[in-house]
Amino acid sequence: MNPSHAPHILLVNPWIHDFAAYDFWANPLGLLTLGGILRHHGARVSYLDCLDRFHPSSASRPSPSARCGRGPYLKTVIAKPPGLEDIPRNYCRYGIDPDWFRRDLSAMDPPDLVLVTSLMTYWYPGARETIAAVRSIHPQVPVVLGGIYATLCTDHARRTCGADRVVVGPGEGAILPLAAEMTGWSPTPRFDPQDLDSLPRAAMDLASRLVHVPLLTSRGCPFQCAYCASHRLQPRMMRRSPRSVVAEIEYWHRHHGVRDFAFYDDALLVDAERHIIPLLEGIIAAGMDVRFHTPNALHIREITLPLARLMRRAGFHTIRLGLETTAFERRQSMDRKVNEDEFLRTIGHLKAAGFNAGQVGAYLLAGLPGQDVTGVENSIAVVKQAGVTPVIAHYTPIPHTPMWDDAVAASRYDLASDPIFTNNAIFPCQSETFSWEVLTRLKQLAGH
């Protein structure tokens, strides 16, 4: 293309292939942040969301206000991947009909570059199918894959997914040089990737219907838990100013009518006096009728009674706590985030601030290497006795984390051979065959 002409760049959020998937305030924030940068510099940006619950062709589009913006994806049963045929559950493509996607892609002007994101490592078949669908319509257009799977399983992605390029790590600093290389268009950068306040607003408005907006007020995490890849994905802790976050919330609420916001931070409450407290005070002062949700879990020991009261006044609606286990005497090998007294004290603060059991949930990891089911059942009982909701979080073995070698040794699958075997829905680190009865019992105990 002519270097003086801004390109047409297409963003694509791929299908999910899995045994289970649900929209818990999920948005491809990284991809749409790149879209905001490209649009800010003059590119024409389009967006196709293979997970779109509100697609115009859907016969049963949900109400935007239902479940605070959450909801089930459309799904179609598909063949199970090789090696998982013995799992007694349906395996599905979650998202829109592939014919709708190809029709939408054919109807738009041909793009000069296609950017596809990726999330869970074992969701790569959905990314691969998405890239193949793009190729079927525009075989000559370059396709770039980025995101979490691309970063954690780079060699596998390069061999498997069919993209022209696999980008590793945060894309903000790489996107303009990449666009220049792929299209010949080379604008002068008007932001600093190391200054989060300078990033243009994410292109959330490209969604067919905007029912919830993700918020990332910081990147990175000071903790290095054995089961988590946060430090690998974002080694450096970076923060936005509270003022810029409040301005973003006001923009989406007042200009687009968004009421539900989900914090994606890994360490939202750390250094509270300089970060979350002024942020909450700014939200309260703005007088907005909004709801906040914390699907990424909050650090328990950071919650004081004054902070809990501020969270309540600001509109926090769904609280998820990173408890992981109540076997406190054995958790040193996993993390050092909380002890029993801190957990119970925090529950007391949240209750005193006015949060009820339905709003507060504690994540409990199930399926850890060497973990006994009895330990999970005991943790469920402790959380219920504390008066909040136990939320079972299935452990996903993640490459490059300290727990990875233990996971590989414990698994009945060859985890290192294919990310498909790390699917947390099948309890891959159990040595015995998947048991639907065990999973059902845990769900019943937790009240799911």
From TrEMBL:
Transmembrane residue ranges: none
Residue ranges occupied by any Radical SAM core domain in the UniProt entry: 207-428
Key words of the record: Iron, Iron-sulfur, Metal-binding, S-adenosyl-L-methionine
One cellular component term from this protein's GO annotations in UniProt: cytosol
InterPro entries cross-referenced by the UniProt entry: BchE-like, Cobalamin-bd, Cobalamin-bd_sf, Elp3/MiaA/NifB-like_rSAM, Methyltransferase_Class_B, rSAM, rSAM_horseshoe, rSAM_sf
PROSITE patterns (UniProt xref): B12_BINDING, RADICAL_SAM
PANTHER family attached to this UniProt entry: ANAEROBIC MAGNESIUM-PROTOPORPHYRIN IX MONOMETHYL ESTER CYCLASE-RELATED (PTHR43409), PUTATIVE-RELATED (PTHR43409:SF15)
Protein name (Swiss-Prot/TrEMBL): B12-binding domain-containing radical SAM protein
